[in-house]
Design goal:
Strand content: 15-25%
Number of domains: 4
CATH class of the largest domain: Alpha Beta
Number of helices: 30
Number of strands: 33
CATH superfamily of the largest domain: Valyl/Leucyl/Isoleucyl-tRNA synthetase, editing domain
Largest sheet: 6 strands, mixed
Helix content: 25-40%
Shape: globular
Distance between the termini: 68 Å
CATH topology of the largest domain: Isoleucyl-tRNA Synthetase, domain 2
CATH architecture of the largest domain: Alpha-Beta Complex
C-alpha cells in the first residue's frame, strides 16, 4: 500500500503531479507510537481506576448517586504459548462495553486477573525442572504485556493471581467456612456447625445410636458431624485417572469416559477424598436460575445436570435384617418388578461401610446356569464381574449395547406389594452415581430391563396397558412398552390394587400405601452428585486441614492462614499406565515429611499437639469460585471483602433480585463446571452472612469462538497455515497439495496468529475493530488476516477527515453541517448507542463506517461538531486513535470519561417516507410524504396525484383506505 499523497505544490517540469511521502498519514508505525503513548498515559494517570464507596453507603451519597457497572471476563489461564487472536475476543468486547458505560456516566469496575494454579504449569515443571511458580509468573508477565498492548481499560490495582498467598489465604478461609457449616433443612440455608452441635448437646437432635452427645468420643463426634458438614472427607466411588495420577470430578470426565485434560481413560475406584455437599443446594441451584439473565441454553444445561426427578423410595427386604432401597419414578409399576439389579460397587455387595455383604457362600438350589457366569460360587462370580465393570467408564456402562452382562448375587429380595421373591443381580448398566445404586427391574416397561431379562431368561409382567394391539404378553413383544398416558393392569395384591387407575393416580395411591407401612415414601432425587474436591497434585491450594492422632480433621484457625505451598524438589504426582485401573494415587506433598508432620496449637484449648497435614490440594476451580468478590476489595488483609463495598458492587437491586456481577462474558463450556461451583460458594457465603448477593453473576453472555483454517498434508499432519498458497481454488504447501478445513486456532494446529503480529502490521485499534466487526459476538467466525485491512482503511479515512496527512494540522472547520450530514450523524449516534448497549458491536462499526463514508463523499473540510461526535462514537472501539484525535481537536481531558453523544430525535426520524398508492390493489403512484402526515392530508395528496387521476379516468370512488404514512388503497365505484 502506498504511503504517499499528492501535494498541489509538488509538480514536475512537465506539470504532472508528483507523489511525495505523507509524513502524517495513519500508518502502523504511527499507530504504534500513538498506542504506546496513550497506554502509558492511562496507566500513570489511573484513568481506569474505579472508586469504592468509603464505609457506610449512606455516607457516600455522591458515588452511590452514580449508576455502577461491574463487568467481568472469565479468568484466563496464563499459558506459556501466550495469546493468539482468538483469546482476546471476549476481553475486547467487555472493554468496548465498559468504555461505553463510562462515557454514559457509570462508575465502571473492570479488571482482569489470572487463574494460575493447575495442571499445565505442573506438567511443564515436571518436564523441565522449572518451578511452577517461576514459569507461571513469567507467563503472566507476557500475557499482561499482550493485553496492555490491546489497550484494555482495566483497573490494574484490582488484578489478582490465584497463586498469590495473599489471595489463596481467603480461598482457604472460605473452605474453612464451608467445613464449619451444615445445611439446615428447616432454615433452607447453611448454618454454623456449632448450631448443630448445640442441638446434639441439648438432645433436641438424637445421635445415630441414641447415646448422649457427651458419651461420644471425639472421633465419634467428628464422624457424626462429618455426615452433615458441607465440606467433608469420605470413602466413596471416585473417578480415578491413572494417566494423570489424580482423581477427577464428574464434570471433568468427558462424554466418552476420558479425562477432559489429556484424554486419558477414567475408572471408578473407592478412595477417601474431600467433597463439597453441593447436593444440599440442588433445589436452590435449580430454582434460582429463573432470576438470572443467562442464555437459555446454559440454564438448560444446568437444569439437566442437576437432574431433578420426583418419585418414591421403596425398600425391598432381603433375608431377616437387610433390605435394598431403590429410587423409582415409576412406583406405579411396582407389581411388574420381577428382579432387581445392584451396581457392582453397591455396599451390600462389597461389604463396604461396615454393612457386610449379602452374597452367600453357595448358589441357591435351582439357580439357572445362565445366571452364574460359569462360576462355582456367588462370591467368585461377583468378584470377577466387579473387576470387569471397574475397567469400564460410566459412558461405556450406559451404552445401549446389544448384549447385556451381569451375574446373580445368589440372594432373593421380596417385592413389598406382591410378596414374590425376586432374584438380585449385579450389572454394569446400573451406576452408584444415580439414585441409590439399585433398581427394581420392570422389564415389560423399560428397554434396558427388557434386554437384560431376555438375556437371562427372567420373567416379565405387563402392568401398563399397551395402547396398540400387541396384547399383554411381553414374551411376544419386540421391545418394552412405556407410557404415562395409560391404565394400570395386573396390579392387584393382598392389600392394594392399582388396576384401572391411570399412571398419575396409581403413583399417588402406591406412594401413600408405602409411606403408611414405613417401607417407602415419596421423594425427590437429583442427578447432581457431591463435588469431588481433592486432587493428588502439587500445584494447587493446600487444604487448611490437619489430622490428629485419632484421624480427626481440624481446620486451621484464621491466624494460621495462609498455609503456603512448600518448596519441593519433585513436583510430579505418581502416574501410572493409563489403562491400569488397579493403581492408587500418591501425592507430591506426601513425600515432604517435614511439612506434613507438625506440632501446632490450634487455639482450641488442646494445647500443643502433633498433627499430620492434608497432602491433597484443592482443584484448579477453587480460586475461580469467588474471584469476583476479591476484585471488589483486593488489598483487604482483614476480611474477604468489606460488606459495604460488596453491597455496592454486587448487592441485590432492581431487576437483580439475587445480586451479582452486572455482565459476565466467557465461554459456554463452563456451564456445569465453574458456573455451577461458583453459584454454590456464593450461596454458602450468603447464607453465613458474609456477602449480600446469593448469586455470583446476574447477566451471562457467551461469546463465540474465532476459528481458523487448518491445512493438512497427505499424511493428515497439520502444516503452517502462513506457508500455504492458494492457486486456482486449491491449496499448496511447498508445492504439495493440502486439504483445508475450518477448526480451532492453536499452536498444535499450526494456524495460530498472535495479536502481536497484527498489532505490528496494523495497530491494536485495527485488531480491536476487526474482531468486533467479524460478526455477532455470540457466534463463531473464521479468522482471515487478509480482511483485517478493511478496518485499517476505516481508521485511515477517519484520520484523513480530521488531520492533513502532509502537515499534521487539523482540518476541521467551525461551520455548521448541512441537514443531510446532521441526519447521518444523529442516525449513527442513535444506532451506535443502542448497538453498544446491547453488545452488537459489528453493527455499531457498520454505522460508524457509513457516517465516515458520508463525510468522505461530501468532501471538503468536516464540521468540528460532526468530527468530535464521530471521534466520540468510535472511542469505545478504537480508544487510542480516538484519544489522539480528541487531543488534536483541542481537548485537554481524556476521552475515556467524555460524555457519549446523544441523538437529537428530530434528526433521527426520516425526513420523508415513501407512500404507495394502489387502485384495485395495483400500484399507480409513489409519493414522498412527511412521516407525521395525517390520514386526511395523505388522502387529499393521493387523490390529487396526476398519475392517480389519470388511472381513475373520471370514475367515481367507492372507498379510500388510508394507512398513513405508507399506504393509500383506492376502490373505484
Amino acid at each position: 500500500m502506498s504511503e504517499t499523497t499528492t501535494s498541489p505544490a509538488a509538480h514536475g517540469a512537465g506539470g504532472a503531479p508528483t507523489e511525495v511521502a505523507a509524513p502524517h498519514r495513519y500508518t502502523a508505525a504511527l499507530a504504534a507510537d500513538i498506542e504506546a503513548r496513550w497506554q502509558d498515559f492511562w496507566e500513570s494517570a489511573g484513568t481506569y481506576e474505579a472508586p469504592n464507596p468509603s464505609g457506610d453507603l449512606a455516607g457516600d451519597a455522591a458515588l452511590v448517586a452514580r449508576p455502577k457497572k461491574f463487568i467481568m471476563d472469565m479468568f484466563p489461564y496464563p499459558s506459556g504459548a501466550g495469546l493468539h487472536v482468538g483469546h482476546p475476543l471476549g476481553f475486547i468486547a467487555t472493554d468496548v462495553y465498559a468504555r461505553h458505560q463510562r462515557m454514559t456516566g457509570h462508575n465502571v469496575l473492570h479488571t482482569l486477573g489470572f487463574d494460575a494454579f493447575g495442571l499445565p504449569a505442573e506438567q511443564y515443571a515436571v518436564q523441565t525442572g522449572t518451578h511452577p511458580r517461576v514459569s507461571t509468573e513469567a507467563n503472566i508477565v507476557n500475557m499482561r504485556r499482550q493485553l496492555r498492548r490491546l489497550g484494555l481499560g482495566h483497573d490494574l490495582r484490582r488484578s489478582v493471581e490465584t497463586i498469590d498467598p495473599a489471595y489463596y489465604k481467603w480461598t482457604q478461609w472460605i473452605f474453612v467456612q464451608i467445613f464449619n457449616s451444615w445445611y439446615d433443612p428447616e432454615a433452607d440455608a447453611a448454618r454454623p456447625i456449632d448450631t448443630l452441635v448445640a442441638q446434639f448437646e441439648a438432645g433436641t437432635r438424637p445421635t445415630p445410636d441414641g447415646r448422649a452427645w457427651a458419651e461420644l468420643s471425639a472421633a465419634e463426634r467428628a464422624s457424626v458431624l462429618g455426615e452433615y458438614r458441607l465440606a467433608y472427607a469420605s470413602d466413596a466411588p471416585v473417578n480415578w485417572c491413572p494417566g494423570l495420577g489424580t482423581v477427577l470430578a464428574n464434570e471433568e470426565v468427558t462424554a466418552d469416559g476420558r479425562s477432559e485434560r489429556g484424554n486419558y481413560p477414567v475408572f471408578k475406584a473407592k478412595l477417601r477424598q474431600w467433597n463439597m455437599r453441593i447436593t444440599a443446594y440442588a433445589d436452590r441451584l435449580l430454582n434460582d436460575l429463573d432470576a438470572l439473565d443467562w442464555p437459555e441454553a446454559i440454564k438448560l444445561q444446568q437444569r439437566n445436570w442437576i437432574g431433578r426427578s420426583e418419585g418414591a423410595r421403596v425398600d425391598f427386604p432381603v433375608g431377616d435384617d437387610a433390605h435394598i432401597t431403590v429410587f423409582t419414578t415409576r412406583q406405579d409399576t411396582l407389581f411388574g418388578a420381577t428382579y432387581m439389579v445392584l451396581a457392582p460397587e453397591h455396599e451390600l455387595v462389597s461389604g463396604a461401610n461396615g454393612t457386610g455383604s449379602i452374597v452367600p457362600a453357595a448358589w441357591p438350589e435351582g439357580t439357572h446356569d445362565v445366571w452364574t457366569g460359569g462360576h462355582a460360587t456367588p462370591g467368585d462370580a461377583v468378584a470377577a464381574y466387579r473387576k470387569q465393570a471397574a475397567a469400564k467408564s460410566d459412558v461405556e456402562r450406559q451404552a445401549e449395547a446389544k448384549d447385556k452382562t451381569g451375574v446373580f448375587t445368589g440372594v432373593y429380595a421380596t417385592n413389598p406389594v406382591s410378596g414374590e421373591q425376586v432374584p438380585v443381580f449385579i450389572a454394569d448398566y446400573v451406576l452408584m452415581g444415580y439414585g441409590t445404586g439399585a433398581i427394581m427391574a420392570v422389564p415389560a416397561h423399560d428397554s434396558r430391563d427388557f434386554a437384560f431379562a431376555r438375556a437371562f431368561e427372567l420373567p416379565m409382567r405387563c402392568v401398563v396397558e399397551p395402547a396398540d394391539d400387541r396384547g399383554q404378553d411381553p414374551t411376544t413383544w419386540d421391545d418394552a412398552f412405556d407410557s404415562y398416558d395409560a391404565k394400570i393392569v395386573n396390579s392387584t395384591g393382598a392389600e392394594i390394587s392399582l388396576d384401572g387407575l391411570v399412571v398419575t393416580e396409581a403413583k399417588a395411591k402406591i406412594t401413600d400405601w408405602l409411606a403408611a407401612r414405613g417401607i417407602g415414601e415419596g421423594t425427590v432425587n437429583f442427578r447432581l452428585r457431591d463435588w469431588l474436591f481433592s486432587r493428588q497434585r502439587y500445584w494447587g491450594e493446600p487444604f487448611p486441614i490437619v489430622y490428629d492422632e485419632d484421624g480427626v480433621a481440624h481446620a486451621l484457625p484464621e491466624s494460621m492462614l495462609p498455609l503456603e505451598l512448600p518448596e519441593v524438589e519433585d513436583y510430579s504426582p505418581r502416574t501410572f499406565d493409563a489403562d491400569d485401573a488397579d493403581t492408587r494415587p500418591e501425592t507430591p506433598l506426601s513425600r515432604n515429611e517435614d511439612w506434613v508432620d507438625v506440632e501446632l496449637d490450634l487455639g482450641d484449648g488442646a494445647g500443643l499437639k502433633r498433627y499430620r497435614r492434608e497432602t491433597n490440594t484443592m482443584p484448579n476451580w477453587a480460586g475461580s469460585c469467588w474471584y469476583e468478590m476479591r476484585y471488589l476489595d483486593p488489598h483487604n488483609a482483614d476480611a474477604l471483602v468489606d460488606p459495604g463495598i460488596e453491597q455496592y458492587w454486587m448487592g441485590p437491586g432492581e431487576g437483580r433480585p439475587a445480586g451479582g456481577v452486572d455482565l459476565y462474558v466467557g465461554g459456554a463450556e463452563h456451564a456445569v463446571l465453574h458456573l455451577l461451583y461458583a453459584r454454590f460458594w456464593s450461596k454458602v457465603l450468603h447464607d453465613l452472612g458474609h456477602v449480600s448477593s446469593s448469586e455470583p453473576f446476574h447477566k451471562l453472555y457467551n461469546q463465540g469462538m474465532i476459528q481458523a483454517f487448518v491445512y493438512r498434508d497427505s499424511r493428515g499432519i497439520a502444516v503452517p497455515a502462513a506457508e500455504v498458497e492458494e492457486r486456482d481454488g486449491a491449496y499448496y504447501h511447498q508445492g504439495q497439495k493440502v486439504s483445508r478445513v475450518l477448526g480451532k486456532m492453536g499452536k498444535s494446529l499450526k494456524n495460530a496468529v498472535t495479536p502481536d503480529e497484527i498489532c505490528a502490521e496494523y495497530g491494536a485499534d485495527t485488531l480491536r475493530l476487526y474482531e468486533m466487526a467479524m460478526g455477532p459476538l455470540d457466534v463463531s467466525r473464521p479468522w482471515d488476516t487478509r480482511a483485517v485491512v478493511g478496518q485499517y482503511r476505516l481508521l485511515q479515512r477517519l484520520w484523513r477527515n480530521v488531520v492533513d496527512e502532509a502537515t499534521g494540522e487539523v482540518t476541521v472547520v467551525d461551520a455548521e453541517p448541512d441537514e443531510a450530514t446532521l441526519r447521518a450523524l444523529h442516525k449513527a449516534i442513535d444506532g451506535v448507542t443502542q448497538d453498544l448497549a446491547n453488545l452488537r458491536f459489528n453493527t455499531a462499526i457498520a454505522k460508524i463506517t457509513e457516517l465516515n463514508n458520508h463525510l468522505t463523499k461530501v468532501g471538503g473540510p468536516v464540521s468540528r461538531t460532526v468530527a468530535e461526535q464521530l471521534v466520540l462514537l468510535i472511542a469505545p472501539l478504537a480508544p487510542h486513535v480516538a484519544e489522539e484525535l480528541w487531543r488534536k481537536l483541542g481537548h485537554t481531558d481524556t476521552i475515556v470519561h467524555a460524555a457519549f453523544p446523544v441523538a437529537d430525535p428530530a434528526y433521527v426520524v426520516d425526513e420523508t417516507v415513501t407512500c404507495v398508492v394502489q387502485i384495485k390493489g395495483k400500484v399507480k403512484a409513489r409519493l414522498e410524504v412527511a412521516p407525521s402526515i395525517s390520514d386526511a392530508d395523505l388522502e387529499t395528496a393521493a387523490l390529487a396525484e396526476p398519475a392517480v387521476v389519470a388511472a381513475l379516468g373520471g370514475a367515481g370512488i367507492r372507498k379510500v383506505i388510508v394507512r398513513a404514512p405508507k399506504l393509500v388503497n383506492i376502490v373505484p365505484a
